[in-house]
Amino acid sequence: MYQAARGTTDILPAEQPYWRYVEKAIAEVTGLYGYQRIDTPVFEDTSLFRRSAGEYTDIVQKEMYTFDDRGGNSLTLKPEGTPAVCRAFIQHGMQNLPQPVKLHYVSPIFRYDRPQAGRYRQHYQFGVEAIGEADPALDAEVIDLAWRFYRTLGLTRLALQLNSIGCKKCRPGYLAVLKDYYARQPGTLCDDCKIRLEKNPLRLLDCKQATCQPVADATPESFKYLCPECAEHFQKLQKYLGRLEIPFKLNHRLVRGLDYYTRTVFEVQPELEGGQSTIGGGGRYDDLIEELGGKPAPAIGFATGIERIILNIKEQNISIPALPGPQVLIACLGEEARETAINLAAQLRKAGIGTAMTTGDRSLKAQLRQANSLGVRYTVIIGGDEVKTATVTLKDMSGARQETVSAADLAGRLNRLLK
């Protein structure tokens, strides 16, 4: 029997209320902050992600879904959203728009990773990108947007972790200090970290292996090696977050998993035991637009996995509103009644009344059970007598009350009752 591919999942009707709830919050919050929606293709040139994420990151080395098309072009399913948005920014001349350009997206994302709760090989990501401004006030705005988004969903017990990893000017000095520190403890490093030490030392801080944790915890703190400009940027950001009353904790090991980040990096994590370790995060990427062939444009972004959000909504027992369903069921007995029912159902829907209609040849008792399972407020019953008199029997499903109503007046009567 066929099943969904490993690391993918079907979003069944019972789960849809959670997705609509999250989508509503996305629309509400992005509207408040003035972020416009952008949708990019599900696959891009492989070189776009190799150049942006970094050749020696786990995403490029282990997680990308890459294939050659029939024209011999190497393409990759999006492993994250930012590079595609940056490509679109350059391609469509958005640098000529008033800056910063504020964009948001909801997109499927593909990573070959070990599947677990809240983490799938195909998952969905909500992200925002603000391109064209270096002011730390914009960093604060993006973090505030993320914080408000989670609050809008009802999520509490969240922790914001913050760090600055400097810029091209000051990062080389910090990397030299980092390499010197790690070179003194080669016997304690995992095989991946031995490669990272040579190829990409900043990734050492992001290692998840238990044997590397004590070494990484004791590393020199990056924010103590910032140049004056980066230090001022970081201090202002912390001051702005204080003004916004957003609590945060400095985490010198926070570097994120992509090479394009500069200065600010941040993550939001649930304090609830058993929740996923990170539900969202982001940071600055001031050099990425230029590296991809555009004019220099500092930028900052944030992204969050929707499956992880829903997992935490369930963990925190947040009540989700039900999706709108039919308010009325039409039950009919006999073929003549069926023809009348089809016509009445169309009239009620035209009047804006959600209407379901029974099908098949079932007893009235079975049709009323269906009405109860759908949770409708009223059942319209049509039999032979109703067809002859051009009436219907209208049954209130919350009690035993029922009345006879003219078929021509049914839509008006229901509209009055449902109000």
Structure commentary:
The chain is α+β, with helices and mostly antiparallel strands and 419 residues long. The chain folds into two domains: 13-170 and 226-315, Bira Bifunctional Protein, Domain 2 (BirA Bifunctional Protein, domain 2), CATH 3.30.930; 328-413, 3-Layer(aba) Sandwich (Rossmann fold), CATH 3.40.50.800. 38% of the residues lie in helices and 21% in strands. It contains 15 helices and 16 strands. The protein has helices at residues 16-33, 46-53, 58-63, 82-91, 136-152, 171-183, 191-199, 213-217, 228-243, 288-291, 306-315, 335-350, 364-374, 384-389, 410-418, and strands at residues 36-37, 43-45, 66-68, 74-77, 101-110, 122-131, 158-164, 249-250, 262-270, 280-284, 299-305, 328-332, 355-357, 378-382, 391-396, 402-406. β12, α12 (335-350) and β13 form a beta-alpha-beta unit. The mean pLDDT is 91.
Please provide a brief summary of the model.
The chain has 419 residues and is an alpha+beta fold. The protein is 38% helix and 21% strand. α1 (16-33) packs antiparallel against α5 (136-152) and α5 (136-152) packs parallel to α9 (228-243).
Sheet-strand content, in percent, reads: 15-25%
The order of strands across the largest sheet is 1-5-6-11-10-9-7-8
**How much helix, percentage-wise, in residues?**
25-40%
Return the average pLDDT rounded to an integer. Answer: 91
Stated plainly, the CATH topology of the largest domain is called: BirA Bifunctional Protein, domain 2
Per CATH, which architecture of the largest domain?
2-Layer Sandwich
Overall spatial form = elongated
CATH superfamily of the largest domain: Bira Bifunctional Protein, Domain 2
**How many domains make up the 3D coordinates?**
2
* Tally of DSSP β-strands: 16
